[in-house]
Amino acid sequence: MNRFLFLIFTFCFLSCGSGSEPTDEIDPIDTGKDRKLVLTHLADEIIIPAYANFKVKFDLMQSASESFVNQPSATSLSNFRAAWVNAYVEWQKVELFDFGPAEKQTIRNFYNIYPANTKGISDNILDVSSNLETPSSYAMQGFPALDFLLNGVGNSDTEILTYYQNVSEGNKRLAYIKRLVVRMNSLLTKVSDEWNTTYRETFISKTGLDIGSSTSLMVNGFVLHYERFIRSGKFGIPSGAMLNGVVSPDKVEAFYKKDISKTLATTAHQAYIDFFNGKSTKTGTEGPSLKTYLNALKAMDSATGKSLSELLNTQFGLASAQIDILKPNLFEEVKTNNQAMMAVYNEMQKAVRMLKVDMTSAMSITITYTDNDGD
Amino acid sequence: MTATEKYFNKLSPAAPLAVFRIGFGFMLLASIVRFWQKGWITDLYVTPKYFFNYYGFEFIKPLGSYTYILFIICGLAALLVAIGLFYRFAAVCLFLSFTYIELIDKTTYLNHYYFISLVCFLLIFLPAQVCFSVDAFRKGTLKKGFVPQWNVDVLKLMMAIVYIFAGLAKINSDWLIHAQPLKIWLPAHNDMPFIGFLFNYDWIPFVFSWFGCLYDLSIPFFLWQNKTRPFAYFAVIVFHILTAILFPIGMFPHIMIVAALIFFSAEFHQKVLQTISKFLHFSPDLLTSKDIYSIPRYRKWIFMVFFAFQLLVPFRYLLYPCELFWTEEGYRFSWRVMLMEKTGYTQFTIKDSDGKQMVVNNNHFLTTLQEKMMSTQADMILQYAHILEKYYAKNGFNEPQVYVDSYVSLNGRLGKPLVSPTVDLAKQKESFFYKQWITPFNDNIKGF
Prior knowledge:
Chain A is 68% helix and 0% strand. Chain A is mostly helical. In chain A, helix 4 (74-91) packs antiparallel against helix 8 (142-152), helix 11 (214-239) packs antiparallel against helix 16 and helix 15 packs across helix 16. The longest helix of chain A is centred in the first third of the chain and has 36 residues, at 35-70. Chain A binds chain B through residues 7-8, 11, 14-15, 18-19, 29-30, 33-36, 207-210, 242, 244-245, 297-299, 301-303, 308, 311, 352-354, 356-358, 360-368, 370-373, 375, and chain B through 184-185, 187-191, 194-195, 197, 200-202, 248, 341-345, 357-359, 361-363, 368, 371-372, 407-409, 412-415.
């Protein structure tokens, strides 16, 4: 036992001794490769505050939805719609945290699978006991279902209000809105509660890189999000780049509202870049992140000496620039300017390869998620 | 008498072969049980819809759920070898069943499985059952006290080949000058207790790389010498335990630690057997025999051919142009262990003359592991392309063409296409010739 303690003591001494040497070279090595610092920063400065921000917007939407359900009017409709837009945009800043509690609750799938299944929604309205917890019900709830219920059930606000004032079914329709929002709230509460209580500690302490550790789960979720939900979902599928040239403008995000689809994509893409760079949601300054970790590992293009993080940021920038030239309504863009949509997809595809191959390989992380049918 | 004749007439007590047989048999049995218990039989041999044959071994077919029976045969054979019952028959079964399993799917290729297959082959022809075995117990005439020394040396030589070729393979610029891939792999363990912090230092991967290379090249010689053997064996234990902790390589380190005992003196092995004997209350005369086993002459030739083959095969890569690590033509069966961090991404497109086009979802065809391995290895990319060709020919495509958009990174280099995206892979044939459609590496990894 004594010998064991001595061993620990020796190692502690060695590690402290080397850490406190007053040379500049040692310092960045010791902290840059410390995954606990990265995980802590991401949890405390980005993930948890981003959920808090979203919760604020979500609560506003919930109260606006209640006002509308209690008394459908032109004003309450427009308030609800505006609050829905704000919440939907804010959601784009947390959707990417598809690991840990979010993955456990599959909140992403219950919140944002589109296009909405309008037939399923109509059926569910009539059946108050319909199951909203199965994968087949993904497209009947969340933001896309609210999109349909707020913007797609009539051609004008008057028609939409008429839909809810219908004598026989109006109340059922309003009740479904309430049901959806309550369900979203309960999922969100579960996810953010877990982050605020037990999961933060789990997240920052499981610093290994083996399958199932925090960094591995996070990187897997992070890469998957870009590939499947930003590249494919927002651009690849509607533009037909993914599905053998079958152009599907009806598969854009916020199809019924239409004019916010670009804003949603821009917000999601920027949130993604900010997370990569460790930009604090609270202060806007950058901290330990995937970028600093890659830099500490000295991941670079040996031919040019450019760092991988720089190359990734350049590629993200190229994709952003292609999004920027789009008009706000991506439904129209697919129909009239699809080449520009394809161009976004192509730039994003290059980023996917870099994330999936160059980044994971530099970090020695195995990609364990599998492609789905969308691919 | 020439020195060669003298050597071939030299005798050794039979104990080292017996200890090796027991140790190897039980380790193999443990590997089989572990494999089963982890659910890998289903994951690797039952679940996949398609398998990657070895070129020339297309007659090896997957057995579906009968694979379990194959594993039972293999496990039983390992047990029989260990206890020395129906030894020759068991050794043949063990070699055939184990090798069959390994030949089903390239995806699971590991050098240490190849090593096990080879040792099983050697055991068929070695008199490992003449001492301390059930066979020798049942039939007294089988029991021998001595075997030709070279029969024991055959196993040492096999071990030495593995180490030395693994060491030679490390003499390359990525390993020694850039400390790759350890530079990538070691920092991943910087949160390990006690030694983790070391992996934050840039020089540590160099120390590990150089030490690993020197270890592989020198350890057989140090194990062979009486004077250095204890230290060498201590190094074997430290080295393999360290690799077991750092890398997911399963039973291999433990098998090597046990197998390396073969280098110890005959007296050592006799003591081991005496200890086991005492512990199990066997009668002491189980170990006493002055008879000499005389090995049939033809066996010598089998071993000669075998080792000539072993010495040549790892060098077959010289017959191919382009960088070995990139093309992997001549990479397998050459003791190139843990030399590459290679990650790939492949997206296949099927086209036909009617203008039909479709992007393939790899997961409809392959398991995650198969996709991962296929994405970095050109011959598997080709095999998969042929699987796709056949499938889409039956599913609405007229003479399908198969193209791949590949992106592969090797030892910290940025990714780039492994296969030319404009080549119709459906038209390419597998052969031992150089694959022209692999894109040039445009970099130089110097060395073996």
